[in-house]
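pinned: reference chain
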Amino acid sequence: MNWGFGLVIGGIVAKKLALKVPGVHYPLIIAAAYSGFTMYGLGLSATIPLTISTGGHSLESKMGVIALGQTIFSLPMLLTALAVLITLPVLNAMLHPKAGQPVKEIDPALHVESKTAAVESADFGGATVASRLNNSRVLSLLIGALGVIYVVVYFVKGGAADLNLVNFFILFLGILLLGTPQAYVAKLGEGIKTISGIVLQYPFYAGIMAIMAASGLVGTISQVFVDISTPETLGFWGLISSFVINFFAPSGGGHWVIQGPFMVDAANAIGAPMPDVAMSVMLGNAWNDLVQPFWILPALALSRLRLKDVMGYTVIMMFWVGLIYIAAILLWGFLG
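pinned: its structure tokens
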């Protein structure tokens, strides 16, 4: 549904399970929950497929508008998603310490649940008109229903999913699920606390991306792979180069702005299939995220673990997912 689910919701569920199920190795279950984040590259919030399916995107003159049916909803990508969905949980389970091996369970004392005052209180600011509206379930239901109705009508009239529609749908779905406008604002505030590390570091990564683009470093990295590519293998080399670049530019949208022009020009020059090339960059981004410390920050904040506690597991997961993504992109290039 949304990349934030894999980034945050998975960690919350894992933490709850670790508190309820005795004998669970806490670092592994947090790493396993985070590993689902790699699926975002194949999901409804995959930045690059959504961007290139939206009219007016920056590279439309070179590659046109590519519908989601040619990217995340294509048969190769649906099979890839299924392969990850089935095999990654099995791998995660196999990594659990065997009987007799030491297990690090969650410390319940460090995870005492506390409700925020904003959520505990049934009265936000007294019995004023504004307070009643802020706490009105009817108002939230009305607003949310209008958003959902718009989406339904949009598709009935033949509209296609794009980045704007996905963001619109997630916004109104959140309003429906959280019940009242005030609850939505309160939960939004809690979520920002969880990702405060990302909010703080993001401007610095934006600066790194700007330096890489201006210096020509990304173009150099990409061009090395482009020079040795054929139409069938350009996607593979795009995947590998995307994996490397994501260490320095861990944003799907920013990543595409930097690497996309070079890959699109190369695809046009040698006649490589454009959906394959675009998805190779997307999957390289999602693959590297398994070992990208920037995106693990919310999981660490939720779990109160350190990076070294979970990174060993995510590295193993990264190698397995990489094999699946490489096989998918190569087969798509040769058989597509």
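why pinned: Confidence is low (pLDDT under 50) at residues 114-125. The CA atoms of residues 25 and 103 lie 5 Å apart.
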